[in-house]
Design goal:
Largest sheet: 17 strands, parallel
Structural class: mainly beta
Shape: globular
Distance between the termini: 65 Å
Number of strands: 37
Low-confidence stretches: 1-26
Strand content: over 45%
Number of helices: 2
Helix content: under 10%
């Protein structure tokens, strides 16, 4: 193994001729000691320098907040003993714990930006604090542990018990159902020319960032991990360019990047995970964390295992105001509400391309190109597949599908079938250019499932092109579903469509 002869004094000390005349175990221990010394300097001064090279590490590395400068650095845990990692994390970057604040003195509505506390808050302008829900099912009832929550930054201190925040609430909050926590505000900047972390398939996480604000992690490559290669939890204001995260183990689902209990995260890069290339949401929300993930944006490429994987990119139901942009193999999964996906979506063999689920609202935007692949899909699956909107829906809204479709393997082009729907304010807007469709069977399956709930209210055809109209599309709709829009006459012409209406369909 190539070794460094001397570390620069910028690291705070000099160590000469590392590895000369040492056994392998001694060399690895030396690297652990070297990193511990550099991290101690970072903790003491807020800045440290990590010289270029490969560091063979045998135990967990904790990186404190601050600015980590350096050259081209590799942290290699591949020969480490998993027994040395009781917390199952190779590298942890973690801010200080939050501080509990007094309770709110009143409830909050959407848009509210004035917060009143029952006792002096001690906050200053620029501080960040958060509301953490304490009631299960308050956010989205698909999972019992989904709760409400949101992070705010103080814009102005009105008085000892009142502050005004920079942006108003995006949810309603009952004072009795939230805790208020002040964030420590710790920051981390990865300023090495590049930082590569080589984990193991039998250690849960290769790199975790937790409880950090206004953090930059450019030029990071993370590989392996039993559960995730790169994980963010309880973070606010993360930026990352040129990120590569690759996870391969199928022992516990598996994610290239996993973002949970976080707000305002913007990443660009290339991700691969056995189950999901990148996933946002899920996760337990107890312990002072926020229950909803908001403003999470990823741009780049994402993929997962073509057989055992779910999606190249996945939003869970406790996600809002977030987006994926790029190219995604194994397609995308969208949930929550007010989320978007734009780019090229390539389905796995016999699999849906764009999936919706855990929808507590009906406001989504999807644009780009969607392609099925390999074997034909089962008849219960559409190329675009939404099987359960209506269950636990808190909001309606307009979903826009603006897509060029290459879906020759899908007999069901769109499967948009609500269950137990009570809302009347949901609209599906279609802007479709169908380049390739199934050669013999084509359906738009839009009927409700079962006998409970109402039919889907409205399908609006804004643009519609069917390149090969030799086989008409059969539109399965309920009798009280409205089919309209400026392109309806063209889409539903006798040559291109057969309309099949019924009161119920099972």
């Amino acid at each position: 193994m190539k070794r460094r002869e001397t570390f620069g004094l910028a690291a705070g000390f000099a160590i000469s001729a590392l590895g000369v005349g040492r056994s392998s175990a001694a060399r690895d221990t030396a690297d652990d000691e070297v990193l511990a010394g550099i991290m101690a300097r970072l903790a003491a001064t807020g800045r440290a320098y990590l010289p270029s090279g490969t560091y063979k590490l045998s135990k967990p590395l904790v990186i404190p907040p601050g600015v980590l400068e350096g050259g081209r650095v590799t942290l290699d845990f591949r020969d480490a003993d998993p027994a040395n990692f009781p917390d199952r994390i190779c590298v942890l970057v973690k801010g200080a714990p939050k501080t509990r604040l007094p309770d709110l003195s009143g409830n909050l509505t959407i848009g509210a930006d004035l917060f009143r506390f029952k006792a002096p808050h001690g906050l200053s302008a620029g501080d960040a604090f958060q509301l953490s829900g304490t009631v299960d099912f308050a956010g989205n009832g698909y999972r019992h542990y989904y709760r409400k929550g949101e992070i705010f930054r103080v814009e102005h201190v009105v008085d000892a018990t009142t502050v005004r925040v920079a942006a108003g609430c995006r949810d309603t909050y009952r004072a009795a159902e939230v805790e208020v926590w002040k964030r420590a505000g710790d920051r981390f900047t990865q300023a090495c020319t590049s930082l590569t972390i080589l984990g193991r398939d039998d250690i849960k996480l290769s790199l975790r960032l937790a409880a950090l604000d206004r953090t930059v992690i450019d030029n990071v490559r993370v590989e392996r991990g039993k559960h995730s290669a790169l994980s963010f939890t309880d973070c606010f204001g993360i930026r990352g360019e040129n990120i590569v995260a690759r996870q391969f183990s199928d022992a516990h689902e598996g994610y290239g990047i996993l973002v949970g209990n976080s707000q305002d995260v913007r990443l660009r890069g290339d991700v691969y995970g056995y189950f999901n290339g990148i996933a946002v949401g899920g996760g337990l929300t107890k312990g002072g964390k926020i229950g909803m993930n908001r403003d999470i944006h990823f741009e780049g490429t994402g993929a997962s295992d073509p057989v055992g994987g779910l999606s190249g990119a996945n939003f869970h139901g406790n996600t809002e105001y977030s987006s994926y942009r790029g190219t995604f193999r194994n397609g995308v999964t969208l949930a929550g509400n007010k989320n978007e996906a734009h780019g090229e979506f390539i389905g796995g063999s016999g699999r849906s391309v764009i999936r919706f689920g855990e929808m507590h609202g009906h406001e989504f935007r999807v644009s780009g190109v969607a392609r099925t692949n390999g074997a034909d899909l089962k008849i219960q699956h559409g190329a675009i597949h939404q099987p359960d909107y209506g269950m636990h829906a808190r909001y309606g809204g307009r979903t826009v599908l603006d897509l060029q479709l290459h879906v020759a393997q899908a007999t069901r082009i769109i499967w948009w079938r609500p269950q137990k729907l009570s809302r009347a304010d949901a609209v599906l807007e279609l802007r479709l250019d169908i380049v390739e469709a199934h050669p013999t069977t084509r359906f738009m399956a839009l009927r409700r499932q079962g006998s409970k709930g109402r039919a889907f209210p409205s399908v609006e055809l804004r643009q519609f092109v069917l390149r090969d109209d030799r086989v008409p599309i059969r539109w399965w709709v309920d009798s009280d579903t409205r089919l309209g829009g400026p392109a309806a006459a063209n889409a539903l012409s006798a040559k291109r469509a057969i309309i099949s209406r019924a009161q119920a369909y099972k």
